[in-house]
Every structure is written in structure tokens, then in C-alpha cells.
Amino acid sequence: MSTLASMPALAPADWWTIAVAASCGVACGTPGVYLVLRRLSMLGDAISHAILPGLVIAFLLTGSRGVLPMLVGALVAGLATAAISSGVARLGRVPEDAALGVVFTSLFALGVLLLSLFARNVDLDAGCVLYGLIDAAALDTRPIFGMHVPRSLLVLAPCALINVTLLGLFSKELALSSFDPELATAMGFRAGIIHHALLAMIAATCVAAFEAVGSILVVAMLIVPGATASLLTTRLSRMLWIAAAVAVIGAVGGYLLAVRLNTSVAGAISIALGAQFTLALFGSPTQGLIPQAWRRAALTLRIRQEDLLADLYRTHEGSAPHDVRPPNPVAVVLLNLRGLVSAGATGPALTPRGLAYARAIIRGHRLWESFLAENLRLPTDHLHDPAHRIEHFIDAALRDELARTQSSDTDPQGKNIPR
């Protein structure tokens, strides 16, 4: 609370800058989901390098370094990058990411060559023309209905609206062509046209955002929200909404962090986006590292408990092997807390509840052995290990189904199958 209290109040210019960053995040983050799914995450970085020949050619044709000719040249170069890389991947039968690497390095080298040959005395490169300075976005305004609106917001807000609208209207086509382009083609959809249209949308979005926020932040907003959303859900529709939310939260939180620390806005927003990705990487309920580790540990503990119950049952019925494993201390404690075993004179002993639980495990084990022997004709000495692994995942319904297929009350070793 003291940190928030010490933060200076935001001026109208601050809110305009946040709006610019949020609009850029939504415009880049929603189509960026498809880049992540299609493994084309570096397309934004490729476009940021490959626009240099477009800038040089635009200058040579117009003789001007104004914003409009530079943006047109950059847009043409960005679209050419997407189209050429896709063509190289298709015709050369190389992975899409490899094609991107070849194309953008080649175009960037072409831009350097053109610059050194025809414009060596002109201060012109991608960094200085389209570097972007989001901190000053609120200073370049246009009067709209009596308000001074940042010029970059007048570009990025419609861009975000158009992107969201197009992605919503063609969501089925984009999903089908992203996950199974062959099926999309067989169903009559032009998967290639859809792919090129998506790349054109992303190229136009990148170029539109470069001037306002800079290429580094564009690449971050293009990839990080989609990557974060992919960790939080597997449903495409939710992924798009989550990516947009991550982008907006990153824009707001990053700007507040920049104000608090008096540092770069673009850097702070990138840090905020990275922090959200890190939280999702470790804490996602489905794919997070911590929940996955917890589930693996819980499964290991459950298997050890059930192994101990099965050993105690075999001892109870007199079929335990001579080299029975010593009981796992952690498993004994947990089973005791669950009321499945009790302390006996010679070690842990099954309670009535534990006996019923263990009987179900052994029943599933021996039913599976019988199933393998009858249907796969496995030798008797090859039955125990696969049954031991699968017994922990056989539920009551599967046990009943296996029982209906059995013609004997004993397993292949002659041991009784518990009722």
C-alpha cells in the first residue's frame, strides 16, 4: 500500500500512453496466438529486420524520409517477407522457421547493400526511422471531437479492432488451417490463401506498431501473450481472450512500473509481459511446472501406497513372494492416516477398509494378467510386470468389463481372482 501511495498521480498524457500500449498489445497479441500455434514466433523479428530494403527503396523512389513513404516501404517489405518465406518453405520443402531465417537475413543484407550503394550519405536505417518511442506517443496528437488524441492511437486502435473482428469472423477457417491444412484443403478451404492472409495481417500490424512502440516491444507483444495463453488453456477461443487480457495487463502494469521506477516504458512493459509468462510457466493448473511436479509426486506416493497394500494383501492370503519389499515408511504413515493400515506386531497390517481397497487392486492386477494371456498370448512369466504397472489405473468400471470377458476364477498362475 505504501508503494501505491507513493506513486505520483497519472496525468491525461499517461492514460493516453497506456491506451496506445494496450491497443498495440491487443492488435499484436491476438494474431500472435496463431504464430505460436504455427511455430512462426520469430516472424515479427524477421519483419523488423527485413523492412530495411523497403525503407531504402522508398527513399530512392520518393527522395523523402517522411513518415508516410517510410511506412509504405516498410509495409511492402513486411508483406514481401511473409510471402517469400512462405513460398520458400513450400517450394523448397524446408521448415517455416528455417525459411524465415533465410529470407529475413537475405533481405536485411540487401537493405544494407542498397544503403551503402545509393544512400550512403543519408542517415537512414530501420533503427532510426522506425525505432519507436512510446514514452512520447502522447505528444504527437490530432484533434478529434475536441480532444487531442495521439496519432499512433488513431492507427493502433482501428488496427486492433480490425484484427479482432477478422479473427472472430474467420475463427473456424483459421483454426482448421492452423491445425490441419490438408483437411482444410479437402473441405474446400484455401488453406494457402488463409495462411498468406494471416501473415499479411501480422506484417501490416507490425509495421503499424513499429513507429509507435518500437520493434522490440512489438516482438514481445506479438509472442509473449500468445505463449502465455497457450500455457493456460488448450481451447483456441479462450486462448485469444487470454492473450488480449495478458497484453492489456502487461501494458498497464508495465507503464505503472515505469512511472514508479522512472525507467523505460517499453522495457517495463516487456518485463511485465515476461513476468506473466513466468507465472504461467510455473503456476498454470494444466501445464505449469509446479502443478506438474505436484501431480507427479502425488502419483508416486499413491503408487507406493497401493504397492504396499497389494504386498500386505498377498501376505494376508499367503501368496507373497519370499523377497517381498520392505514397506516404504512414508507410505505406511499415509496409509495409517487414511485408516487403511494399522500397526501390527510384525509390522503394518490391513484394516477392514484397507483389505477391501487392496482386494480391488489385486483383482484388477489378476484380471489384467488373464486378459493379456487370453488375448495377446503372452507367456506366463511376461504377465506380472505390465499388470503391475497398469493396476494403479484400473477403475471399478474397467474391472467389471474385464471380469465379463473372463471364463475362469483364477489368473494364469492359478491364483484366485478376488471377488
Describe this structure in words.
By secondary structure, this protein is mainly alpha-helical. It folds into 2 domains: 7-218, ABC transporter involved in vitamin B12 uptake, BtuC (Orthogonal Bundle); 292-404, Winged helix-like DNA-binding domain superfamily/Winged helix DNA-binding domain (Arc Repressor Mutant, subunit A), CATH 1.10.10.10. Helix content is 72%, strand content 4%. The protein is built from 19 helices and 4 strands. The chain has helices spanning 2-6, 12-37, 43-50, 52-62, 67-92, 96-118, 126-129, 151-169, 171-179, 181-186, 191-213, 215-232, 236-261, 265-283, 289-317, 329-337, 352-375, 384-390, 396-404; strands spanning 141-144, 147-150, 341-344, 347-350. The strands form 2 sheets. A two-stranded antiparallel ribbon has the order 1-2. Strands 3-4 form a two-stranded antiparallel ribbon. Strand 1 and strand 2 (147-150) form a beta hairpin. It is elongated. The model has no long low-confidence stretch (mean pLDDT 83).
